Protein 1
Amino acid sequence: MKKSIFTLAALFALSASAAQPTDSVNGQYYKLFAPLTFYHSVAANQLSMNDADETTEAIDAALMNVYLNRPDLVQVTETEQEQSGTLRQDIIDQPVTQQTTMVEQSMPMPEVPEAEPVEVAVEKPKFWTRKGDGFLQFMQNYVSGNWYKGGESNYAALGSLTLEANYDNKSKWKWDNKLEMKLGFQTSRSDSIHKFKANEDLLRLTSKVGLQAAKNWYYTLQVLAYTQFARGFKTNDIKTYADFFSPFNLSVGLGMDYKVECFDKKLTGTINMSPFAYNYRYVDRSWFNGNQWFPSRYGIDEGKHHLGDFGSQLTATLEWKMSDVLTWKTRLYGFTSYHRAELEWENTFTLKVSKYITANLFLFPRFDDSNIWDDELGYWQFKEFSSLGFSYNF
């Protein structure tokens, strides 16, 4: 409706302007296009007896039609306009001019170098991480022959090397591999048979494949195999108590693996629980299988070379950086076939003296009821040593 009214008014204005010369058309049509206002002259002209020109009558008729039919479109009255004031005279009298400054020559446009092709190198993700550490340490103890408390002089050396190669595709799969090698020897004056004998001997491989089940949980298949390098003796005893592949232990477990990260990642490691595990033990030397002079020390019947059991298994490997100079590494291994049990708890405390010098304290309690009963310790065994020497991480 509003659009039709203004269209009608515009037509009246155009028709009137066409009937008159162009110079007579000044600003008398502004009433039709300005915001709709109630003008007193429109109503007064309707009641006046004087004749007005055709243009004025057309404009007044269009506005009067709006006043009578659509008074809601009227926004302001002529009186309100007068009360609002007029335009500032200084603005009307003084035209606004633009100050223009001419220069002889404009600055040249900067040259934009053309875009050169860029080679984008996409590196293949590194799924494998490798690390290792090793140390070589020595121990020496001298006691004179007339020392009032007695004792014996001895020398010892210990070397260790640990290598790790771990795969993680940052999605679901991981594969951890760890190879541990330790070999130590000692000498003592009281042993008239052996110049030196092994006091620490280990060759162990741990490998496990995991499929992620939750944030820190993995379905895991773990394989654990270990033996030793050299022959094992006792003081002033010609018998060999252990040798390479005598015994050899192989354990395969299926279960769950939990990734440990505590104390702002100062305590890290894994805990593996395998309710379905198979433990296999092999002895190459027939001498170790048990006879009337040398009872079996590994639970293998006389005349046999191997022993296999199904059961459950637990393996926990943790590292706790207690401070900048003190670290505790522990490994707990347990296996039970529900008629025999084996438990090992290795603890290594490392004190960092300098960048390449460390001191170690090693504590190793062990339980194995397939071994020979001891009158003092029963089925328990214990090993302990402390050392000082060189270490290196890579």
Note: The helical segments are 2-19, 30-33, 40-47, 54-69, 78-83, 89-93.
Protein 2
Amino acid sequence: MNVPYLDLKSINLAHQDDLKNAFETVLNSGWYIMGEQLLTFERNYSTYNQASFAVGVANGLDALILSLKALKIGAGDEVIVPSNTYIATWLAVSYVGATPIPVEPKWETCNINPELIEEKINSNTKAILPVNLYGQVAEMDKIMAIANHHNLKVIEDNAQAQGALCNGKLSGSFGHINATSFYPGKNLGALGDAGAITTDSEELANAIKVLRNYGSQKKYYNEVKGVNSRLDELQAALLDVKLKYLHSETQERQRLALIYDEQLKGIDNLTLPQNAEGCNSVYHIYQVRTSKRDALQKYLTEQGVGTVIHYPVPPHLQEAYKELNFKQGDFPIAEKIAQETLSIPLYPGMPKEHQEIVIEKIKGFFY
């Protein structure tokens, strides 16, 4: 029996009647961009995320870029970013002309280490861009304290952690502005590309609305040089359906993760996910770490178990960032994470027998 890493088809077919009704509503409306479906989803998502405003955009990368633009961060500025993250975090900083300044993660959580941030702050530093990686919140309360002390802005990247908590506060509600992706594989996934920005600042929300729509509030009248990055009516309607099920699907992810925790604990040379104190995870992925990662992945593939490496090459070693002159060894924790991590199957609706096979095969490899 083959066990897929992720089964998006089954996740979405579980809601097919609601999704089809949403599609028909949009089709029959005759209005496909910037309409009632977008406004409804923005209102519902801001309520879910305990933020005053939500603004839908085309994708997660645009959400980060427009957040930086709204904060007027650009050429000559520096933005502190994690050394361990998907490259989109760095790309957004580069696209506005600023420079990404990497900070190592904590080995235990894989999220940016707040204790290392201050040493990277200088007169050019304008913002911190922490990422809630793998489904758990970064230590955002500590990061916000540092930012407030140094008068810096915080853009919280919440693409992987909708619904996670840190000391009782929701991910995506900490930063001055918060960006998220609804890429299909995310916990709240669209049926295509989509993204959003949340904030408690009406000024920033209005700035994003102008920037996403060619720099215009009124058609043909352009206040600034904007872009075309609008969350369309269809994706907004589909996301609004899936938002209703996010809490129950999160509970399912956490239930499956607990089974892995209980069944895989104590295996020598296998590290399981760990949360920072006061923070939990919504398990966008369930990631294990071992010095035998490549051999484990090869074995599981041969046994019909799908896996993914998040992420095999850290941003500082990517060809795209060769101009920054980073080399192997500059960020050893990020590099070790890249060499040792493996994501194993976990998703809402995952059959019990599939998880049992994953556990059996992992134990079989180590024992």
Note: The mean pLDDT is 97.
